[in-house]
């Protein structure tokens, strides 16, 4: 394609010329002044782009149309941002250039930049396009960089989507480097806007995740993360959808999220949200904006009036929300179906007061709702939640500058997933994801990541022991509404406590009653494995399926149900070692020797039966058939650190340092890249997973392989810094393919601390 650029020497013209040249176009310059335009010597021209600012009017349009006719070329002219409509009900200023071209016989397109056209600034790679209405980016800005303007024009030259039409563009800053004040916490990967302790918050509708948070694409709702009695995902977590409204017209909006505030920017102003406490959400609107609250309700749910203009919604038999307009009023439609005893749907609007503002309080409770005698102001609420977040962050170890954004995201993840006691949850508890149940071993990893806050770390380590069975089994997974104990997860409590004890003297820093609680729980838990998971009584307990090893579909369990794998014995050895240390801290020297002897004996037996001289293997229960696939789970015994013989430490470390086997540029993958079992589907056949990197690399570090552990840990952390905190990382490309979860967050924080500080 051959194009002419009017004003090719201007700043914008240079950008357009460079972008078009990069795409293989031939570019001819034309001077800015009409009098100097000439078709002579140009040859064949397919399109003419006007790069002269400010945008012209009727005379410029007539000149461009004449040039297009003379060259038999398409014209792309620059329009005025003021001419764009603010929304579908408010027209922009008249645009003489547009109307003149529209009435001509030229082949034309008008490109209208954003209100702010920035010479400097990053290219987002894919500017957001619109038509005749002003649009905003994900930070709520009508902003377009020269680089993205050039990309939008070059795209149009290639695609010809807007012939005879006007279009506009903004720079999608979500495609640029995110900051703490601009969607560093990305709702598209299943984050919930909430605060520590709370069982509800604001979520992005599932159907819009991974499609961007640019203007008019968000669909937000107040959602619950309480455990539903049946655990049926079809019940849903959505309670109240939120839609900004202006004078009866629903508005699109841009979403900007900070750790403590959610901001919806519309063409008429902002709606802001913050969590005043763990049960209270405040939503504030300005400039005459309203907020529509709506949803379909499930059977037996109800929306009912309360005093003072408030309404109460009862959802999923788990919680209620009291919607109380502190400023403005709430107009609600909520029909009643007497036969079904249900409010089938509701639609209410929070209208502004005489000053054009509204303030809505949303109060969550597991009991019947009630109005509070007093409510904080929005400013007080924001100050409170900000202080809580900053206090939590202050206890997270520092990292090197390139990892700082990932540190902030990981810390926020754990802070926001941290729940207060309720129902089956008796202590502080961290969920696996924003609204999903947590497993027992994952709780240990959270405790290790938060070891600088010793009281919290010990509570996290202890909370599964609140539900221990009479014979010593821990629940597999717990939330406030469910306690699931038909299976187990790996007993990594000893690993976690050892990591904590490297930084704390428990005898001096921890209350005796907490140490006694852990001592009793650890003893019952380790004994349970020999009572209930050593069916052939050979002294080596087994897992009953792949879920119990924690790496669900890992290759050792491809053809076998129950297996004796070396990691389980290693975890139990660490439990014995911690029991010995706790006995010391509690002043029980006679017990220490017994636990240490058990640890020595189990270590010896594990090596004798499961180390073949080159590597660890698994064996089938009873028959002891060897199972040796290319899964990284065979390297989990490195958690034993220096308890292993040096030759085993050396061999396992050497294996893990072979590029292209388990070692990738992004950390350790779960299956060798050349394995027949390798695949990037399921969970544990090839991805770079948090848990395996966390356990193996801390073990490698404790085994004295400091440099090697730091090297691999840094690879994992660099990938998180580049791609965000994700459960799954592609071992080939490093890209994420999974939701954000506390597992990836706690792994990043431990490994970043290891790589940067230890």
Structure write-up:
The chain has three domains: 2-175, Rossmann fold (3-Layer(aba) Sandwich); 187-379, putative glycoside hydrolase family protein from bacillus halodurans (Beta-galactosidase, Chain A, domain 5, Distorted Sandwich), CATH 2.70.98; 395-756, Glycosyltransferase, CATH 1.50.10.10. Helix 1 (11-22) links the parallel strand 1 (2-6) and strand 2 (26-30). The model is unreliable at 207-214 (pLDDT under 50). The strands form eight sheets. An eight-stranded antiparallel β-sheet has the order 14-15-16-17-24-21-20-19. The two termini are 58 Å apart. Helix 2 (58-71) runs parallel beside helix 3 (96-102) and helix 6 (404-417) packs across helix 18. The longest helix has 22 residues, at 589-610. The protein has 758 residues and is an alpha+beta fold. It is globular.
Domain unit count:
3
Biggest β-sheet: strands ordered side by side in the sheet: 14-15-16-17-24-21-20-19
> Structural class, please?
alpha+beta
Main β-sheet description: 8 strands, antiparallel
- Kindly report the CATH topology of the largest domain: Glycosyltransferase
Strand content: 15-25%
Helix proportion of residues, in percent? Answer: 25-40%
Mean pLDDT: 92
The CATH level-2 architecture of the largest domain is identified as Alpha/alpha barrel
What is the distance, rounded to the nearest whole angstrom, between the alpha carbons of the first and last residues? 58 Å
Enumerate how many helices there are, as a single number.
Answer: 18
Radius of gyration over all CA atoms, rounded: 31 Å
